[in-house]
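Hi everyone,

Forwarding the result from last night's run.
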Amino acid sequence: MSDSQAIAKIRITPLVNGQPREVEIEPSELLVDFLRNRLGLTGTKRSCDVEVCGACTVLLDGLPASACSTLAADADGRDVLTIEGVGENGELDRIQQAFVDHGALQCGFCTPGFVMAVRALLALHEKPSEATIRHFLRGNICRCTGYVKIIEAVKSLV
């Protein structure tokens, strides 16, 4: 491919974890690659690449989004929150602490995605029922815990 045939980069200006960013990207760059490779935010995990497991869940304008199937360009001018943006001054936030307190994590690979999904859930539902919790978390897969402890952790927050 000659230089004249090269795909033009595009400039995006998302707000990532409260910090404004201005970056040139390839139009086909995925949000997961942008976050992990360009910004070093490796808490967003790459796993299934087809919106099935939830390990790549971030909040895009407060709502859960699968970073593995969202173009980075779709984050232009929007608020992106990753697990690294949760908590303050090196302290766990209440959701992360509930996961620790209830043993709702083991290997930890899926935990960032669950925490982000729970954050969105609690922003939308002040006191969700167990059925609502289970329904909202259906897009997140954990291969270690069996979900009981995760549900207990979330229920402890309401």
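The mean pLDDT is 94.

Cheers,
N.
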